[in-house]
Amino acid sequence: MSGDTEHDFGAFVAARATTLLRVAYLACGDRSEAEDLLQTALERTYRNWDRVRHHSPEPYVRRVIVNAAISRARRRAILRIIPVRSLPDTPARSADVDLRQVLMDALRALPPRQRAVVVLRYWEDLSEHQTAEVLGCTVGTVKSQSSKAMAKLRMALGEESVEGVIGNARA
């Protein structure tokens, strides 16, 4: 890559890294995994920068993040099927739980595709069409996945609190 191209990529990363890290965190629910996802996405974007930079690169990076998060979740699900000799210790939950933590737990319980739709639609405030574009699916799929995800969140958090919790978590 030429010096100008590397400078353009560096400027893009400097300007959008925080937002993209937030997308990665919301997509996977773990800070260190989010950093890994973002690093993977930026690496792939860098390799394709000459093609991507002329269009809007941010949706491309979001799509890479979401696809990588879904792939990792699938791999983990397969690994959970494989039996282990002893169960791992699970930490006890604190009695005083922050709303943000409650929401993150509820998001982690969603299937990866539904989690991606919720993150892109409600945190990133993308339209249904933009979300469909990022995920590489139809608008109808976004609508159905969003509906299913919100129903699960309502069950987990209570009907009246879902929109409030999502609004508070964005702040």
Structure, explained:
The protein is mostly helical. It has nine helices and no strands. The longest helix has 26 residues. 77% of the residues lie in helices and 0% in strands. The model has no long low-confidence stretch (mean pLDDT 81).
Globally, the shape reads: globular
Oligomer: single chain
Radius of gyration: 17 Å
Number of strands: 0
Number of helices: 9
Q: Pick out the low-confidence regions.
A: none
Distance between the termini: 39 Å
Provide the helix percentage.
Answer: over 70%
Q: Could you say which structural class the secondary elements and strand pairing correspond to?
A: mainly alpha
Largest sheet: none
List SSEs in N-to-C order. Answer: HHHHHHHHH
Strand content: under 5%
Mean pLDDT: 81
Structure summarized in a few sentences:
With 171 residues, the protein is mainly α.
Question: What layout of secondary structure does this protein have?
Answer:
Elements lengths: L2 H26 L2 H17 L1 H4 L4 H25 L17 H11 L2 H12 L4 H8 L3 H19 L4 H9 L1
Key structural traits:
171 residues; mainly alpha; 0% strand; globular
